[in-house]
């Protein structure tokens, strides 16, 4: 009986996502990462723990360049506690599938990969997340949704061992 209760508790804690990328294929405006992120943009965001408590807020200044094959995103983070962080992403668009991307940045475990459909982008990746004085391996399930007037909403679940630790919520704006 205890095993059944533990399994049910884990299912409730991890949640069941019913989001399917194909559900967004007819949604507008169409999201093309290399167009949206080419140039300067700014994002404002928060990290909330699994109980809905905001633990951090931050701004990200992004400078993106598209060379016809790769999208380079240079990100400068400024956190509410004054801490600063720099990350550089390199995303590559698949030549055979124009909706499929792979990417890498410092801290990413392996290769990030995902696809666009309509106004949405979903990608998943492992990441070495700094928590205090140590780094822990987590998994990101990252969803982006392009809105009118150049706004982009980003919601990412952060998980470890299949259990949701929290969410990152960001709002991007073109500059």
Number of domains: 1
Rough shape?
A: globular
The rounded distance between the terminal residues' Cα atoms is 57 Å
Radius of gyration: 17 Å
Spatial strand order of the main sheet: 1-2-3-4-5-6-7-8-9-10
CATH topology: Lipocalin
Strand content: over 45%
Question: Helix share of residues?
Answer: under 10%
**Helix/sheet category:** mainly beta
Question: What assembly state would you assign to the polypeptide chains in this entry?
Answer: single chain
Question: What's the rounded overall pLDDT mean?
Answer: 91
Order of helices and strands: HHEEEEEEEEEE
Biggest β-sheet: count, sense, barrel? 10 strands, antiparallel, barrel
Kindly report the name of the CATH homologous superfamily. Answer: Calycin beta-barrel core domain
* Low-pLDDT ranges: 1-15
CATH architecture heading? Beta Barrel
How many individual β-strands?
10
Description:
The chain is mainly beta and 175 residues long. The chain has one domain (19-174): Lipocalin. The chain contains two helices and ten strands, in the order H-H-E-E-E-E-E-E-E-E-E-E. The chain has helices at residues 2-14, 33-36; strands at residues 39-49, 54-66, 70-79, 84-93, 100-104, 108-117, 120-131, 134-146, 151-160, 163-174. Strands 1-2-3-4-5-6-7-8-9-10 form a ten-stranded antiparallel barrel. Strand 6 (108-117) and strand 7 (120-131) form a beta hairpin. The longest helix is centred in the N-terminal third of the chain and has 13 residues, at 2-14. The termini are far apart.
